[in-house]
From TrEMBL:
GO molecular function: FAD binding; kynurenine 3-monooxygenase activity
One example of a Gene Ontology biological process annotation: kynurenine metabolic process
TM ranges: 471-491
Keywords: Membrane, Monooxygenase, Oxidoreductase, Transmembrane, Transmembrane helix
Pfam families recorded: FAD_binding_3
Species this protein is from: Volvox carteri f. nagariensis
Record carries keyword Magnesium: no
Domain FAD-binding: 20-370
The protein's name in its UniProt record: FAD-binding domain-containing protein
Length: 496
């Protein structure tokens, strides 16, 4: 990805060493943004309403990064951590624990490697690296939330977010402080405060969730060692080497992995009872009696039923009409959230897409020579096409399974109808692609082979969509042409 060209104007020259960026959100996306900004010379203030992240904490979820996201760790030289990048163990595949078979994943090329790790653990590593590299220019403020942003005056408001003491030097325990900025970066996730402010203050800024999964999910971590192996050879597997999947129609699903410290964690979704530990454990045992260890079922029940967790989370596709406002940009899930339907082995593209948005911002800053009056809009325009293609592929994968589609909540009848049209497009692409690849395998790829190319970071989402359209569009054109000719001939006969 090259830096986009931006028209230069005579006059003001922007010196990044005199500029301040306020980043909201200290997850992997916000922490990586702090690295890229500090590398250009910005003073960076990062605010997060939660506590400082640590491996396996309450805010953690499994995070899957393809090579699209992992490239950032190479660019920034973040090789002190062993979770993502050249020093980490790439994912080798997904074990179907019900059918006892491995779905392998290609990890032979650096352009195609995928990594699974703990979100909070990764964020902690990236934050620590930023504090060590840029002790005078990057500061993180935890338990501190953004309350407002005066877009015209470029002043944000921050205050303590919990009863826990915030950083004493930053926020008075009972008062809100003003935080001046030159660039405001929203990296605060699906329920973004920055996005909410833009929606309220920026004309024509639209936000919609076209589809949301009705099945909730929760993260689990540090499961106890079971009395028997859930899979032959399980105890010999290296951390981060495999994802273990328990799923079946009409049953709850569980996806676990071994984290870098040897602990087992993951996600549980689709339980009927989240508030009863015994009921949750019994449901898992009944769903997978031969493969899911009793010790894990009991531990999962205890963790997911904790009253402190609140309501289960729900994955959704989120779309914004633009990713910017005056001197403000949105990154990652704050701008374009997705579910976990697409990506390698259905493990999700969201985290990788979030890191791509950070890299896009960094490239736009370089191409625009830090002209912050131009950067936000240019960033949004550059990022828009890739996001549209990514979310189209996500929608196609999310609605292809009829069982899963019945558990989806659409924003309106339009999106429900769009799902039908999208599946028609997919069917055409798969049928035509399958026929062509069977006849000329060296010339054409089947639709699954085309989608598999997304694992390669050199292939863009837009390229994949265009390849699928190349299969389906001629058939649609011929069909419409035949309908037009038929109507024309019928009209002529009527006149005769």
């Amino acid at each position: 990805m090259d830096a986009p060209e931006v028209e230069e104007e005579e006059g003001r020259r922007w010196d990044p060493t005199t500029l301040t960026a306020v980043v909201v959100g200290a997850g992997p996306t916000g922490a990586l943004a702090a690295h890229y900004l500090a590398m250009r010379g910005y003073k960076v203030e990062v605010y997060d309403k939660g506590a400082r992240p640590s491996p396996g904490d309450a805010a953690s979820v499994p995070l899957v990064l393809t090579s699209r996201g992992a490239i950032a760790f190479e660019e920034l030289g973040l090789d002190g951590q062993r979770r993502v990048g050249p020093t980490a163990t790439p994912l080798r595949g997904v074990w179907d624990m019900v059918g006892r078979r491995l779905r392998p994943l290609d990890s032979s090329s650096a352009f195609r490697r995928t990594f699974v790790t703990d979100r909070s653990g990764l964020a902690a590593d990236v934050i620590r690296a930023a504090e060590q590299r840029y002790p005078n220019t990057v500061r993180f403020h935890f338990n501190t939330e953004l309350t407002r942003a005066e877009l015209k005056n470029r002043v944000a408001g921050a205050r303590p977010s919990t009863s826990e003491p915030a950083d004493a030097a930053d926020v008075n325990a009972s008062a809100e402080i003003d935080v001046p900025y030159d660039l405001l970066v929203g990296a605060d996730g699906l329920e973004s405060t920055v996005r909410r402010i833009l929606k309220a203050k920026v004309k024509d800024f639209g936000v919609i969730r076209p589809v949301e999964e009705t099945a909730g999910y929760r993260a689990v971590s540090r499961l106890p060692r079971p009395s028997r192996e859930p899979l032959t050879g399980f105890y010999t597997h290296r951390p981060q080497e495999y994802v273990y999947d328990w799923s079946a129609p009409g049953k709850p699903s569980v996806r676990l992995y071994i984290d870098i410290d040897g602990s087992v964690g993951g996600l549980v979704s689709g339980l009927r009872r989240w508030d009863d530990a015994a009921a949750a454990a019994a449901e898992l045992q009944a769903a997978y009696p031969d493969s899911f260890p009793e010790e894990w079922a009991a531990a999962v029940g205890q963790q997911v039923s904790s009253p402190a967790l609140g309501e289960p989370r729900h994955a959704a596709i989120l779309q914004c009409s633009q990713f910017y406002g005056p001197r403000t940009v949105l990154l990652g899930d704050a701008a374009h959230a997705v579910t976990g339907a697409s990506g390698p082995m259905g493990l999700g593209q969201g985290p990788s897409a979030a890191v791509e948005s950070v890299r896009t911002l960094a490239l736009v800053l370089r191409g625009a020579q830090d002209d912050l009056d131009k950067v936000p809009e240019v960033y949004s325009n550059v990022r828009g096409d890739a996001v549209m293609a990514m979310q189209m592929l996500e929608f196609m994968e999310l609605t292809r399974d009829s069982e899963r589609a019945r558990r989806l909540k659409f924003a309106s009848w339009w999106f429900a109808w769009s799902a039908f049209v999208t599946q028609g497009f997919r069917w055409l692409a798969e049928t035509v692609g399958g026929l062509l690849s069977a006849v000329m395998p060296k010339t054409f790829l089947s639709a699954p082979q085309v989608l598999a190319r997304l694992e390669d970071r050199r292939i863009g989402y837009s390229e994949v969509i265009k390849m699928l359209q190349g299969y389906a569009s001629p058939v649609v054109a011929l069909l419409l042409g035949a309908i037009f000719v038929g109507l024309f001939m019928a009209f002529n006969r009527a006149l005769a």
